[in-house]
């Protein structure tokens, strides 16, 4: 069942633990689904890929990589990032966020000179 979240849609989100300053959720992105460019003011993100492969892009520092099953990637607070599934099968990952008050601050599209993130 797809779930609408903050203006974007993903296949599913399953809460594992949700507290006042830390949360853990399992996301499933269908092929082509994207969590748009955003950042968090105080929380860090830790991605742990459980199934498929996850595309992660960041700004300042600029980085773009494909995280395979068993791989992980961390993003510090105030770092704009885009998460997507560019493969032909579902991407499933555990997202741990903390420590701090969760927020989702949307930012504009790709920076100048960047490729498409569809």
Report the biggest beta sheet as strand number plus sense, adding barrel if it closes.
Answer: 5 strands, antiparallel
**Average predicted local confidence, pLDDT:** 89
Structural class: mainly beta
| N-end to C-end Cα span | 21 Å
Identify the CATH architecture: Sandwich
Number of domains: 1
Question: What is the class in the CATH system?
Answer: Mainly Beta
Overview in brief:
By secondary structure, this protein is mostly beta strands.
Q: Please, could you describe this protein's structure?
A:
There is one protein chain. The protein is mainly β and 118 residues long. It has a single domain (3-106), classed as Jelly Rolls, CATH 2.60.120. Helix content is 0%, strand content 53%. The protein has no helices and twelve strands. It has strands at residues 3-5, 8-10, 12-18, 22-29, 34-39, 44-51, 54-58, 63-67, 72-75, 81-84, 91-98, 105-106. It has a five-stranded antiparallel beta sheet with strand order 3-4-11-6-9, with no helix packed on it. It is globular. The chain starts with a strand and ends in a 12-residue tail after the last strand. The relative contact order is 0.29. The model is unreliable at 111-118 (pLDDT under 50).
